[in-house]
Write a structure and sequence with these properties.
This protein is α+β, with helices and mostly antiparallel strands. It has helices spanning 15-32, 37-44, 53-60, 74-97, 101-131, 141-144, 153-162, 165-181, 188-209, 214-240, 256-287, 437-446; strands at 3-7, 250-254, 303-312, 315-316, 329-332, 337-341, 373-381, 386-391, 400-409, 412-418, 424-431. α5 runs parallel beside α11 (256-287). The protein is elongated.
């Protein structure tokens, strides 16, 4: 697609401006446009007949990677070195052929288009999982029965956000509005300004609370500042220095066929990353919230249970807060997760990175950043009344139990079987009819008594 251009105040680019532009063009182009073969492998592996919001989120969450492991600032250093080499090569080539002013203006325009759309989908991807409070869900029963000091800073932050879903939705709305403004050239700087401020706070929160998205959030901040820089001088002159501000002198004029192609591409882009993604996310909120498993647990068992009797082998172990073997309480979630609180040490799983596309069995949000409990996913054999438990923490992937269960009463469950260490275990669990102050306050708030 080609354009004609109008530039009423066309001025020559200075030598250092050209070099800086070449460097930034290569850098942001490589940051925004997926050239990694693994991205396209992921793209072609999507089941388009059953497209999920997690798959769209992953496509919008692209980051160029040059190293193994989690995202790191070293990737930026490598990318900057590549851009620097590319800028020198471009300078040498340009010196032979001569660069026209209009060509640089045109390249600058298209670079802004690319990074605007890249930033827009990045913001909207996170915006919808907040608008429908998926990113920080309401705490699980296990979370509500874990000591405050057993949580990491990040998990406390996430749980605190999860108990006020209306505020989480508000934050998502801000992200979506900022992203939508970027789709239009006249409002792009306003959107970039909102996003730069918003994501600056997100970046600092990641640093302060130990979140896993500090690299990605700072990347989006840098993109927002680049978009904003186009109008920055005019805004400073007008709003701060109270001087006359020259209008934008560059206006692309699309040829007839180019306008139709541009409109079609823009419509398809917005439909996929806004309308379709928003619909899929809303549906996922109702049917498949990605932080918690959706596999149903033992019917009618959800709740917290005191361990009134506990035997290892033939030895009865009295209740103790210091014994690493003795279970203190057991939680059955509504889904197929069982957690056991004891004094047994827990090696924390602190991934803290958004991964909406994980299967139900792979979801570990409930245990991430949480000590004091061991979490197990389980399968139920209702015929033989057997539970097969697998520790969900990747640091304990070899821990697997097979337990028989009896339910002599509506509030009692008896577990017996063999642990990974070949020790026999017998535990009598009695459900606690526990009311949570947080939930009671929420109920009163809905009834108009108080609000959270």
């Amino acid at each position: 697609m080609t354009t004609d251009t109008i530039n009423s105040n066309k001025t020559a680019w200075k030598g250092y401006e050209k070099f800086a532009f070449r460097l930034l063009f290569i850098y942001f182009f490589l940051q925004a446009v997926p050239l990694d073969w693994k991205y396209y492998q992921q793209l072609f592996s999507i089941d388009w007949s059953h497209l999920s919001y997690g798959a769209i989120f992953d496509l919008a969450h692209y980051e160029p990677r040059w190293s193994s492991g989690p995202p790191a600032y070293s990737d930026w250093v490598i990318l900057l070195a590549i851009s620097l080499v590319g800028a020198f090569i471009w300078t040498a080539v340009d010196a032979r052929g001569g660069g026209r002013v209009s060509s640089y203006d045109n390249l600058y325009y298209w670079l802004r288009v690319i990074v605007r759309y890249r930033l827009a989908i990045g913001m909207i991807a996170y915006g919808f999982i907040k608008l429908f409070p998926l990113q920080s869900p309401y705490p699980s029963i296990s979370n509500l029965n874990t000591n405050y000091g057993d949580f990491t800073r990040w998990k406390l932050f996430s749980l605190s956000l999860g108990v006020v879903p209306s505020y989480e939705s508000f934050l998502g709305g801000v992200e979506i509005i900022g992203g939508l403004l970027l789709f239009y050239r006249r409002s792009a700087s306003v959107g970039a300004f909102i996003i730069a401020i918003f994501l600056g706070n997100v970046f600092m929160s990641n640093l302060a609370y130990g979140g896993g998205d500090d690299v990605y959030s700072l990347y989006l901040v840098s993109v927002a500042l680049f978009v904003l820089s186009y109008d920055a001088q005019r805004l400073i002159n007008l709003l701060l220095l109270q001087k006359p501000a020259a209008p934008n002198s560059y206006h692309p004029v699309f040829r007839a066929n180019g306008r139709y192609v541009r409109l079609a591409l823009k419509t398809a882009f917005i439909f996929f990353f806004v309308i379709l993604y928003g619909f899929k996310t809303g549906s996922g909120y109702e049917k498949d919230p990605y932080q918690f498993p959706v596999t149903k647990g033992l019917p009618g068992a959800a709740g917290i249970y005191n361990v009134s009797q506990f035997l290892v082998g033939k030895d009865t172990i009295a209740y103790s807060k210091t014994d690493s073997t003795r279970w203190q309480d057991v939680v059955f979630e509504k889904w197929a997760t069982l957690s056991i609180r004891s004094n047994r040490p827990v090696v924390l799983d602190s991934d803290n990175v958004e991964r909406p596309e994980l299967s139900s069995e792979e979801r570990t949000y409930e245990l991430e950043g949480s000590a004091g409990r061991h979490y197990y996913r389980y399968t139920v054999d209702t015929v033989d009344r057997m539970l097969t438990l697998q520790n969900k923490n990747p640091h304990y992937s070899d821990e697997k139990w097979v337990l028989h269960y009896d339910r002599p009463g509506g509030s009692r469950i008896i577990l017996s079987g063999v642990t990974t260490g070949k020790d026999s275990v017998y535990a009598v669990l009695d459900r606690v009819d526990k009311k949570y102050l947080l939930e009671e306050a929420r109920k009163k708030g809905r009834q108009g008594g108080i609000s959270l």
